[in-house]
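Notes from hallway chat w/ T.B., transcribed later so I don't forget. T.B. wanted the structure written out for a chain they're using in a teaching module, and asked if we could keep both sequence and structure tokens in one place. Agreed to drop them here.
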Amino acid sequence: MAAEFFLTFAMQETLTRVSSIVAEGIRLAWGLKGELRKLHESLTMIQAVLQEAATRPVTDKPVNLLLEKLQDIAYNAEDVLDNFAYEILRQDQKKGKVRDCFSLHNPITFHLIMGQKIKEINGSLDEIQRLATRCGLGLIAPQHAHGAPEISLDRQTESSSEVVVGRDGDIFKILNLLNGSIDQQVLYVVPIVGMAGLGKTAIAKKICELATEKKHFDVTLWVCASNDFNKGRILGEMLQKIDKYTGGLSNLDAILEKLQQELENKTFLLVLDDVWNEDPDMWDDLKDLLLKINKKNGNVVVVTTRSKQIAGMMETSPGSQHEPGKLSDDQCWSIIKQKVSRGGGATIASDLESIGKDIAKKCGGLPLLAKVLGGTLHGKQAQEWQSILNILFSAGVLMKEKQ
């Protein structure tokens, strides 16, 4: 069923973002980490439901009802996480690079609204779990060796991913970089670098999808690096993506040996998403281990990072970096429309479209902000759209780089 494919992808995406945002929430002292952790645990459970639901007949009405409810929850969770991601951007750059007066991001308002939304989603997921039990679907979450719920990091799992608006040129250029070097080096590193909100991760996901489709690599792996750039953790997650039944390996030499066995005579594409580590020694240590996995030419690491310093540190060939540009106003409007219509391509009334296009002009070319605003506009009437536009106009330029 197409619904299961969509939902499996959506939940994989949401799980990964929850795990990353929990870490950011702790760093920024949001006070919502308990609710976010509960959301993560619930979504992990739901993945097991989806895996079993995929084996049921299309005519199974209770399962279809469950999937419909899950689809609504997945969209709501994505909207919440988009808002968290934008808050991370705002917090990180509030000292001058980014200026905004969008009322949602008043700290007290933000905490109250997001806290309530996450509680509502968690409540809905509790109900889904009860419904799943009545349908006879399993609810046992996959486990790590240490007993914590598994965090799925394979964001590019299904081909039914959302359309990546305005990035065909970026994707084409990076694929050409990969193809041009695929047999030239044992390990070729391509950093995708740029400010937060540009859609670097979305581009990397599309690269993975197309590389897998065209069979450029034998194995495609995804690890969210974030603030925990630990060689043991990264190699361990690589191994778990290859063999999910591997458990109990904490020794780095044992993990490396197992990776060597699994990837002997195979090429791999590894995405290290959201790298913050600026220590060249830590990168050199990880790179040395990656080079030991096999000696076959054609292995590639795609890195996403906000830092040009990190991109320069990690690249293996001059000119291998790629920095995506900002989107046009029309492209931002296209993203807003996707979020408003929940990806369904529904026609938007002309009065809303006129207001929406003005709102798109206030996105500053950032797809993340377009997604946040699109999620905010969903289900609202023209008067509420106009109120949001008025807020943006009263704030002047919502997103403005410091000159």
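Follow-up for T.B.: The chain has 14 helices and four strands. Might be a good example for the class.
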